[in-house]
């Protein structure tokens, strides 16, 4: 696949192109339900809705009546050396039956060990041992859910001396061995590239296009010695540049803007999503013209 | 062998030990090495160093994010406890609590389940004797917030209950209901600390660990670097009336409420929970009083339950 000939959506086994979405946050529940939006689809944090009842589930049901929804988890802990949490998988499967998501995703990381949860996305060493562990667990999760899942690359701040491959080689190999899709977080690539000193464009070039189901975009904070994935800012210009390159390489991929802290009003979030849409369309249009 | 130096299980255990240590990663490395829980130079074998930022400082980023995410989760669930003791004391309480009770559930929603009991034995209770009761009330709101849904029994549905059969009715309570028996009257304190009860209850899902984090710095657990919550001093009084208080907590139309209950109402609720019939409840309440007034009192109590929407339904049994 050349960089100038992005794959057709749907032609590579990836899920249908949903367009441009945002993360559904409680600050926007009323706004989303009360009037139309320029948003094509919503992503929800699975764990926030893996509850017995209450308003959140009611809101999810009503949002789902109007929009496609994707379940995005933060606690699958797919890279952990603990046993898979069967009760968690039961709840996730139940939520999926309830809201029929377009797909289910989580993170390529670990979040728990020894039965304790960090509630943070902790990085893995890029080793054959970790690869075997993750691929086997993804297989069991997919069997349990009856569908493939997508895994997202995380922002990271520390690396392991024992890593035997690059992050993108690890990600691609997990997808190849397990059959899972990739949720490519463009901001996370940029943050980790700055924190570890690798070339973010080399990362994009190392990811198999047919495996990429979704993009994430978000803002980060510059802490001087490192970048922190804070999701409390607009998307930074270098990340928009990387997004253009990602669209050129991967084509029409469903794109989602995340904003999780210092959450602005919904119209500001819509504007950020509209910017992603404009870049996406302009980049694809240019690629098509070049191909002709 | 690269792989041998990065045994996955060991790496995760070490990572966890370092980022959950209360004094920061550098101190944790020294402590764990001194105690023999960490081999000399093991950190250097597991984590890659970098001239721009040493591995321990990189791990401290995670340590800050770990602590402040959980601190913020507790502060959100225990709004009144936080307001009563102020940010500094709550920070220390959370530090002690997380050391004793690290999260055992994939959702942050469950993190505070043991905090009311933990406060019972915490030194902070000497300064704020009512704090465990206040925490129980905070936590009851959390539990009611996302308890299973159930349509409440309406006045119209109850009208179908023939008067001659009413004594055989065994009522059921909605799942989003709890009856608390507190040692202190904390309702006044709650009201004084109020400001966000309905705001929170009506909002929706609580934020779980999302991909984005609160800002965190390399300074070990400095509030400026990590916490999303503004610092605040204690606002709670140092005493509260030591008086047994019953409080019922329930959710109606996605809003969580609470109200004090008299001793006789509390007794009725406990009997309903035990599956007793209305006739038995009336008998119990009639002990030592005029039967007609007891029946009238039960009627008023029932009316209040219907109005508040805490009854889910009833079943009829001939064995009243």
Question: Could you characterize the architecture of this molecule?
Answer:
Chain A is of the alpha/beta class and 292 residues long. Chain A has one domain: TIM Barrel (Alpha-Beta Barrel). An 8-stranded parallel β-barrel of chain A has the order 1-2-3-4-7-8-9-12, surrounded by 4 helices. A two-stranded antiparallel ribbon of chain A has the order 5-6. In chain A, strands 10-11 form a two-stranded antiparallel ribbon. In chain A, β3, α4 and β4 form a beta-alpha-beta unit. Chain A is globular, with a radius of gyration of 18 Å. Chain B is mostly helical and 320 residues long. Chain B has a domain of 200 residues: Outer Surface Protein A, domain 3, CATH 3.90.930.50. In chain B, the strands form 2 sheets. Chain B has a 3-stranded antiparallel β-sheet, sandwiched between helices. In chain B, strands 1-5 form a two-stranded antiparallel ribbon. In chain B, a hairpin with a 2-residue loop joins β3 and β4. The N and C termini of chain B lie far apart (76 Å). The N terminus of chain B is likely disordered. The chains are: A alpha/beta (292), B mainly alpha (320). Chains A and B meet through α2, α3, β5, β6 and α5 of A and α1, α3 and α4 of B.
């Amino acid at each position: 696949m050349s960089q100038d000939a992005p794959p057709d959506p749907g032609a590579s086994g990836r899920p249908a192109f949903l367009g441009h979405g945002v993360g559904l946050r409680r600050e926007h529940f009323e706004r989303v339900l009360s009037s139309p939006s320029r948003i094509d689809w919503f992503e929800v944090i699975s764990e926030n809705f893996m509850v017995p009842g209450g308003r959140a589930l009611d809101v999810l049901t009503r949002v789902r009546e109007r929009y496609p929804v994707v379940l995005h988890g933060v606690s699958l802990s797919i890279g952990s050396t603990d046993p898979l949490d069967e009760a968690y998988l039961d709840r996730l499967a139940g939520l999926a039956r309830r809201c029929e998501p377009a797909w289910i995703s989580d993170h390529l990381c670990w979040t728990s060990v020894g039965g304790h949860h960090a509630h943070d996305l902790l990085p893995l060493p890029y080793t054959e041992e970790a690869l075997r562990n993750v691929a086997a667990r993804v297989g069991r999760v997919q069997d349990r859910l009856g569908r493939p899942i997508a895994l997202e690359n995380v922002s990271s701040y520390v690396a392991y001396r024992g890593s035997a491959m690059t992050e993108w080689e690890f990600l691609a190999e997990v997808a190849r061995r397990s059959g899972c899709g990739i949720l490519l977080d463009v901001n996370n690539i940029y943050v980790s590239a700055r924190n570890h000193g690798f070339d973010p464009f080399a990362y994009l070039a190392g990811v198999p296009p047919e495996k990429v189901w979704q993009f994430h975009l978000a803002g980060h904070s510059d802490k001087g010695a490192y970048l922190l994935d804070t999701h409390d800012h607009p998307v930074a210009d270098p990340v928009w540049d990387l997004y253009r390159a990602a669209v050129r390489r991967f084509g029409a991929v469903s794109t989602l803007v995340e904003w999780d802290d210092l959450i602005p009003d919904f119209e500001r979030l819509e504007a950020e999503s509209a910017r992603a849409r404009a870049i996406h369309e302009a980049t694809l249009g240019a690629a098509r013209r070049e191909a002709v | 062998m690269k792989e041998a130096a990065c045994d996955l299980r060991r790496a995760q255990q070490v990572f966890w030990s370092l980022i959950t240590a209360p004094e920061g990663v550098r101190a944790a490395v020294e402590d764990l090495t001194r105690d023999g829980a960490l081999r000399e130079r093991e950190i250097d074998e597991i984590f890659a160093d970098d001239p721009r930022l040493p591995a321990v400082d990189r791990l401290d980023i995670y340590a800050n994010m770990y602590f402040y995410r959980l601190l913020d989760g507790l502060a959100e669930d225990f709004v009144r406890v936080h307001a009563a003791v102020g940010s500094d004391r709550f920070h220390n309480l959370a530090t002690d609590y997380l050391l004793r009770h690290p999260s055992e559930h994939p959702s942050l929603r469950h993190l505070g389940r043991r905090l009311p009991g933990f406060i019972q034995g915490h030194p902070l209770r000497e300064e704020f004797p009512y704090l465990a009761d206040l925490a129980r009330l905070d936590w009851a709101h959390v539990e009611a917030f996302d308890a299973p849904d159930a349509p409440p029994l309406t006045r119209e549905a109850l009208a179908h209950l023939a008067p001659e059969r009413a004594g055989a009715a065994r009522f059921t309570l909605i799942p989003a209901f709890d009856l608390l028996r507190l040692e202190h009257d904390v309702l006044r304190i709650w009201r004084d600390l109020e400001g966000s009860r309905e705001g929170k209850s009506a909002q929706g899902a609580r934020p779980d660990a999302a991909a984005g984090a609160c800002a965190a710095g390399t300074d070990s657990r400095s509030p400026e670097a990590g916490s999303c919550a503004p610092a605040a001093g204690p606002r709670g009084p140092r005493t509260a009336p030591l008086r047994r208080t019953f409080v019922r907590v329930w959710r109606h139309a996605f809003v969580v409420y609470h109200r004090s209950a008299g001793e006789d109402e509390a007794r009725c609720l406990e009997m309903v929970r035990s599956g007793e019939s209305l006739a038995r409840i009336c008998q119990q309440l009639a002990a030592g009083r005029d039967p007609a007034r007891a029946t009238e009192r039960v009627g008023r109590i029932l009316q209040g339950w219907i109005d508040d929407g805490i009854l889910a339904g009833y079943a009829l049994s001939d064995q009243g």
